[in-house]
Each structure stands twice: as C-alpha cells, then as structure tokens.
C-alpha cells in the first residue's frame, strides 16, 4: 500500500508538470485527418453500431419467443439484454453523426435519471395497459424515458412481476418489453442507415465540404472523435465512479449506478473503458509525439489497462465489507487514471496532433 | 418554439415544434418534476448537432428547458424578480432573445439597429423595466450602451456612449443606478470581407473602466490602463461586498511579457492589478474569460479557459487563495456563500469551492457551454 501511495504522488507530480513539457520538443508531423476519419468510422464506429443493431435484433427476437411462451427463451433474453447493454456502452459516448441528433442517445437509454422518470413512466404505462405502447412505432413517439435499455431493465428485472406470468398484466409487460426491444433495434438500424449513402454521415465526415454546416474541414470530425473520447471518460467518472466515491462515507448506502438492477454495472464500466481505449488506439494520436513526450502514450496505454481492470473491480467491490480508507484510495486511483488520460489527451496529445478541441479557449470574448 | 424537458421527454420522432403532439402526450408526463427552481443555471451552448441554443439546466444533470438560437450566444442578462432572461448574440452578432424562464410567455427576438451590433453582454435596470446592452457603432467605431424597453417588447428607446472602444461586459452596481463598463479598447469593424472580430488597433488600443449614470448616460468617472499596460484589455466585471469592482483582462501583447490579469478599482479609486507572490499571468495564458463574485461577496473567481484553470481571489487580502483545474472552462457563477458553479466547452457542469472541495460534476455529452452562465436565485 505504501508503494501504491508513493506511486500516486509521483504520478500526481508528473501530471502537475504537464505544462512544463509543452515548451519542449520538435513540431510533430501533421496527421492525415481524412485518413484518420475514414479509419475511425470504418474500423471503430460502424462495427460498434453494427454490433448494437445485431444484439438488439437478437433481443427483440428472444423477447418475441418469450412472450409467445417458448420454454427457455427467457434465458436467451437475459443474455441478449446483457449483450445489448454492453454494445451500447461501447457507443454511448459517440455523440457525433447520427448520435448528435436531438434525443437519439436518450431514446437508446434515458440516463442519468436523477428524478426517477423512467420507473415512474413505465409504471404508468403498465397501470394503464396503454395498447398503443405495444406498437414499437408508436412507442418511439412517446417519452424517451419509456424507450430504451433502462426502461426495459425496469420490466425485465422485477422479481415480483416477471414478464413470463400467465395473467394479463404479465402479458402486457412482456408485450411492452418486446416493443421496447423492437424500438431500440429499429433505432440502431436507423443510426446505421444514417451513416450510409452519398449524403450520409460517413461521407460528410470523410469528405467534408465548405458548404456543410457541420463539417467544413477534415480536422473537425477528428476533433469530434477526440472530444468524444475525453467526454466519454468524464461520463464514466461522473456516472459511475463519483456516485461510488460519494457513497463510501455512508456505510450500507448503495450508489445509484446505471444497470445496477440487472447486475451489469461492472461489465458496463469495463465495456465503456475498453471502447474508449479502442477509439484512442484507432485514432493513433500518440504515434507521432516528439521524443520528449514519448512517455505520454505509454502512460495512457498503461492507465487504460489499469482502468479496464480497476473500474469494474470497484463496482464489484460494492457489496463487500471493506476498510473505508482503502476503498476510498482505490476509487481515487480509478479517478486519477481517468483524469490523467483526459488531461494528457486534451492538453497534450490532441493539440500535438493539430486538433483544436476546445470551445471557449479558441477565440473567446 | 422552446424545447423544454417535457417536450423532450415526449420523444424525438416528432418535430420539436409540434405543439399538437406535445398536447397529445402531456397527460402521460409529470411536468412538475421539471419546474425551474432556485439554483438552476442558464447558459448559451452549442448542441451536439452543431446548432446553438440557450438552456436552463439543473446541476443534477437535467436540461429543464431549451430554446434554439440562430447563432452562437454569449452572456445572459437575468431579471431575477421578473423571471425574465435575455441571451445576447456573441459579438458581432445582432440578435438577442428575451424569454420568461418559466415559459409563461412567448420569447421575444429583437435586434440592434443595422449599424450596431451587440458585444454579448447586458444588464437589466433594478426595476427590470430597462435593458442596457453593450454595442458597437459601426459608423464611428465607438462603444455605446443600447437601451431597450423590457416592458415594451424590447423596443430600442435610446443609447449613450461607453466612453471608449470595444466595450464588453457592463454591470449595474449595488447602488442600482451606476453602470460599470469594461471598455476593452479593441477596435473592430463590420464590412464585407471581414468577420467583425479582426483587431484593428492593437498597437494603439486604450482600455478603460468607465462608470456611467444609467439614467442620464453621464460619465461619472473613468480609469485608463497605464501606458505600459495599454494592451491589457479589460473585459469582465464583478462587484464585491465592499463595493470594489473587480475586473479580468486579456493580454494582447507578446506572450513573453504577459502581465497579471486580475485587478480592482472603485468609482474614485484607480485601477490596481493584483500582484501575487507567484506570477500568474503567463500560467493563465494571458486570458481571463469570465469573473464572478461568491455569495458572501468576498471571493472572486476568474476563469482562464486557455489554461484550463479557475483561480480564486480573496478580495480583502487581494491574494490568490485557490484554483480549480477544468479543461476549456470559462463560465462561472456563485453557487453559494463560498462555492462556484462552472461550465466548460466539454459539456461539464461542476460545483467547486476554493478550498478544493469538489461538490459535484455532471457531463452533458456532445454539448459545449459558452463563456458565461447565470444562476436563478
């Protein structure tokens, strides 16, 4: 433990000294942004949305079988739901292209939900047995909070009211769950479609045009990718790590984490970290740093590895009795690695690659 | 049409302007869960799709209301008693949008006259009936305060000079009648082929802090930057509990000679730049983007977005007493007696205290918050 603390402070001092490294070093080679953009979209973005469409399609199919009374189908529902949640974790922070459109991410999953809207609105639908909600096309026009994966979780992981019951209420819940899965699958397919074609987002981001209101230069999509990486890590910090830190002083208090009802929180954190790391590596931002900064990509890679292990472990450790101080230290280390990656990418690696990712820092007032 | 949380919850397959659809589903939703309350924030932002809006949001991560803007916004003037807000276009924009924060009335879009543009800031009179906005006279290239009738559809009813060039923030002092105006000193001009943001007089610029009688437009007093600091543009203002006016500056000179950036003055007291034991100007990248006073009136927070720092100044000791690191952070406002809410271009809303107490962070992914934020009291 003493060793861990010493390392923590050494790294803290390294991070505090980031500014000193800015002044030194030769100018890096300008990256080929069009090539980066095509690579990120084709090798990273599209495969992940394809996976989301595939898993959500399987989920819709297994729920259809379960609602038809097929024996054993509910087991497949559990697996397909987990696969869909983990596929979503891999893309939820990619708020560019089709995911930049108002409401699209929230329809996949309405989170954060500090006011408990999802639970309340799903309960209202069930109480009314609103038949229109059983049609996925109609459901898609209702509140974002009654669509998507957290709404589905409310129905699938309610031990007191299983969707496999024979009564009318259970049948309605199963039908609603099926509609939610079908609606989510349809949305995933819409997103995939929106990437395609001559006027699709892939074309707009790979071949930006001066007249395009969103992407006028090849640098802009690349900056969006870097911004997504940084905010994706911040989302893990805000939505998963910070609630656990806040819960530490209150013994027995359970932090509110995404997908805790289904027991997927730890795997969800891990999938998010892994996807962020894949984005970083696919962009290749750390490839052309000058010699005096070569330690940065090495540190980032090591920090990602730590996060992929320690992030899920922190969630899994929630239910175990543990020394408060030790748990606080563990969570601080997770936070430290998230912050370290964010700062190095945002303040050093991305600017070195010629990316301007700030909004206020550029030409403010 | 405004997009509030209720409409947003209804789903997005419908168009955002579909009032009919919102009525159709209103019964399913509990609008009261998303009422605007004390402690909520108002800020201009860029949305994930690249368009601009002004949002009312809570620090728990909920967007409570959103109104699209035709271009990038900047600061918000807030009439707390009347529940009215005005978001100004970023310079050299010429639009402003006035709206009731509770959505009880239709928003009012108004503009400057053709030969004026906004500088992004303004303030209400104490009774909320008038709105004062910093503006540029494209003919004389001088700064003016445009006066708008807030009780009459924001009709422009007059103007008076700022007694300088390139005015930026103007605040109404605690006496309820004196306007403090930061004349940044930078001359710009709008004409075909120019963005209106080109700096035309950096070598000869002369920033000042002017005190103007809001009822008559009379100049009460004015303090100029010293000759050696004539490239230190005064941009943002806040008044502390003792009555002193604090300002944040932006350095237009060579990076190697960056001076300190934060100072204070009074109506009868000249400009005084504070000199911390450990020089801060270069560490703050020569650029303060916003200043705010704490709830107890004793601490000034000054944001430096290019450095990703927010520094805190004890106004009585005139000393830096803490800092927060937040990438691309700019907008800042008092959240309590001793804490501040701040936003960033990376979609973060954070509440911190100068003693390094971190109170909360929420991320609004894909969203970039603009330079200023206001809190509903």
What would you note in describing this structure?
The complex is a heterodimer of chains A (about 375) and B (about 375). Chain A contains 14 helices and no strands. Chain A has about 375 residues and is mainly α. Chain A has 2 domains: about 150 residues, A middle domain of Talin 1 (Up-down Bundle), CATH 1.20.1420; about 140 residues, Four Helix Bundle (Hemerythrin (Met), subunit A), CATH 1.20.120. In chain A, helix 3 packs antiparallel against helix 4, helix 3 runs antiparallel to helix 12 and helix 11 runs antiparallel to helix 12. About 5% of the residues of chain B have low confidence. Chain B starts with a strand and ends with a strand. Chain B is built from 2 helices and 29 strands. Chain B has a 5-stranded antiparallel beta sheet. Chain B has a single domain, classed as YVTN repeat-like/Quinoprotein amine dehydrogenase (Methylamine Dehydrogenase, Chain H), CATH 2.130.10. In chain B, a hairpin with a 3-residue loop joins strand 26 and strand 27. Chain B has about 375 residues and is mainly beta. Classes of the chains: A mainly alpha (about 375), B mainly beta (about 375). At the A-B interface, helix 5, helix 6, helix 11 and helix 14 of A face helix 1, strand 25, strand 28 and strand 29 of B.
